[in-house]
């Protein structure tokens, strides 16, 4: 069993020394657990300025974006899914411009969600990374022709 040693200020220790552990932890959480407005503003600014450069793994970018959203939710700032989806569309790299018509159709049907935007982007990324099978077949057949 491990123990935790905390250095706490004298007046807190005198007031709570006879309390049980759960009350002490609750008091510590109320004193130090609150997120400051400055920290919330920092998280919001980081989310607002977030961009997807397009040269890294989309999964890593989405994971970091999700982390920023969860920080804001922890601070009781809830951004509607519709706004989050629109933000992802707005920060989408130019390389994904081919999927914009799909998203516009979803916007018109009021069905655009964060998961759909992520799915479209991941599918487009996979499509661009796979070699064109027809071009590959033509190249192979051209290589096997007698000279």
Describe this structure in words.
The protein is mostly helical and 147 residues long. The protein has a domain at 37-129. It contains 8 helices and no strands. The longest helix has 17 residues, at 58-74. The protein is elongated. 7% of the residues are buried. The model has no long low-confidence stretch (mean pLDDT 80).
Features:
single chain; 147 residues; mainly alpha; 8 helices
Rg result? 26 Å
The overall strand count is 0
Mean pLDDT: 80
Order of helices and strands: HHHHHHHH
Low-confidence stretches: none
Shape label: elongated
Fraction of residues in H or I helices: 55-70%
Largest sheet: none
Structural class: mainly alpha
Strand content range: under 5%
Amino- and carboxy-terminal Cα gap = 78 Å
Number of DSSP helices?
A: 8
Strand and helix layout:
Blueprint: H1 10-16, H2 21-32, H3 37-48, H4 58-74, H5 81-90, H6 100-108, H7 114-129, H8 133-143
Q: Briefly, what is this?
A:
64% of the residues lie in helices and 0% in strands. The chain is mainly α and 147 residues long. The longest helix is centred in the middle third of the chain and has 17 residues, at 58-74.
